[in-house]
């Protein structure tokens, strides 16, 4: 009996030890499955290290862009301009800095017209810079314009800008002489060679299209006065001031530096109906009415509108057309506003 009790006691102790071991094992479960899952996740992260953090590459816009445009396309263009070396801010607005950068870039490439407008030809040249991994020397041909907003009168830092606002407070430099002047193939009211037959190429091409459309409409438009140098404008204003007094003269004649004619983007037109003169009555002729209705289709505006004399500070001139490009011209003419109002509305 005593032996049996000892055997039973031994078996109880053995059983207790086994239960203790089993209990310890349950407190430390097999972690192989967890380790395997963790390993699989690590492998996935290694295979896709950039997943969730990559950014879409910035590409050049396909659209034509110009001063006062806003949006993602302008933002993309500004990023690219910074990439190729222009110290501008990314604002999402095609501002003076962006216009300067585009103009300076165009001036550095002979194949481009220096207009300040981003278009397909400029896009192609920028693409070549990007493909070569190169940068440009910013300001090489046109210094970055200073902010002169606080000044009563200021000289334009970028006279090449097709959308430059030229008036009595925004002056062209005395030495500005457009490099791309050409004589458009249109009718003139006088014979012989004369600098005033000239326009900048972009405006000359557009004027030829405008005259062709007027011809198809059975009208007789004649070009009378385009480009005038600073010195020529100085002489004209001096003569008018001597005859009419400086204050009155400045209601119909610009002081030197304040004339759009010096930009090479403006042309005075007339017709036989007013004996080839520049008179307000031109606005009532068939040619004058057609011009007011159709000039914007070719990128021109009637620069000095009737009823807007307090804004332009010049008299109504139905004969004076200024090239600004089709998009801006349509907006200006459809709304019946001045170029001053157009830019004020964009601020």
From TrEMBL:
Bias kind Acidic residues: ranges: 30-54
One Pfam family matching this protein: PG_binding_1
Signal peptide extent: 1-22
Segments forming domain Peptidoglycan binding-like: 70-123
Sequence ranges assigned to domain D-alanyl-D-alanine carboxypeptidase-like core in this UniProt record: 197-325
Gene Ontology biological process terms from the UniProt entry: proteolysis
Molecular-function annotations in GO: carboxypeptidase activity
Alphabetized UniProt keyword annotations: Carboxypeptidase, Hydrolase, Protease, Signal
Region (Disordered), start-end ranges: 29-60, 133-154
Ranges of biased composition (kind: Polar residues): 135-149
PANTHER family the UniProt entry points to: D-ALANYL-D-ALANINE CARBOXYPEPTIDASE, PEPTIDOGLYCAN L-ALANYL-D-GLUTAMATE ENDOPEPTIDASE CWLK
Protein name according to UniProt: D-alanyl-D-alanine carboxypeptidase family protein
Organism from which the protein derives: Ornithinibacillus sp. 4-3
């Amino acid at each position: 009996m005593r032996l049996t009790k000892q055997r039973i006691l031994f078996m109880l102790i053995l059983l207790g030890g086994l239960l203790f071991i089993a209990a310890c094992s349950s407190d430390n479960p097999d972690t192989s499955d967890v380790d395997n899952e963790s390993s699989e996740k690590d492998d996935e992260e290694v295979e896709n290290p950039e997943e969730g953090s990559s950014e879409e590459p910035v590409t050049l816009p396909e659209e034509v862009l110009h001063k006062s445009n806003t949006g993602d396309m302008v933002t993309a263009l500004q990023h690219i301009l910074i990439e190729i070396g222009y110290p501008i801010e990314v604002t999402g607005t095609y501002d003076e800095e962006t216009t300067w950068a585009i103009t300076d870039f165009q001036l550095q490439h002979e194949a481009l017209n220096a207009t300040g407008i981003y278009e397909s030809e400029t896009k192609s040249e920028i693409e070549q810079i990007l493909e070569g991994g190169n940068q440009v020397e910013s300001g090489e041909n046109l210094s970055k314009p200073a902010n002169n907003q606080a000044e009563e009168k200021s000289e334009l830092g970028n006279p090449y800008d097709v959308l430059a606002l030229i008036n009595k407070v925004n002056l062209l430099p005395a030495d500005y002489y457009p490099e791309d002047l050409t004589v458009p193939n249109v009718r003139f009211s006088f014979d012989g060679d004369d600098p005033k037959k000239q326009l900048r190429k972009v405006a000359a091409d557009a004027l030829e299209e405008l005259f062709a459309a007027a011809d198809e409409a059975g009208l007789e438009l004649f070009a009378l006065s385009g480009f005038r140098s600073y010195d020529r404008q100085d002489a004209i204003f001096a003569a008018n001031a001597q005859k009419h007094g400086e204050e009155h003269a400045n209601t119909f004649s610009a002081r030197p530096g304040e004339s759009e004619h010096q930009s090479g983007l403006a042309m005075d037109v007339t017709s036989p109906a007013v004996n080839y003169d520049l008179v307000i009555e031109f606005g009532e002729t068939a040619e004058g009415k057609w011009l007011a209705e159709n000039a914007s289709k070719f990128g021109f505006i009637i620069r000095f509108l009737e009823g807007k004399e307090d804004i332009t500070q010049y008299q109504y001139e139905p004969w004076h057309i200024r090239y600004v490009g089709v998009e801006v011209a349509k907006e200006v003419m459809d709304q019946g506003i001045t170029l001053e109002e157009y830019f004020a509305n964009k601020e």
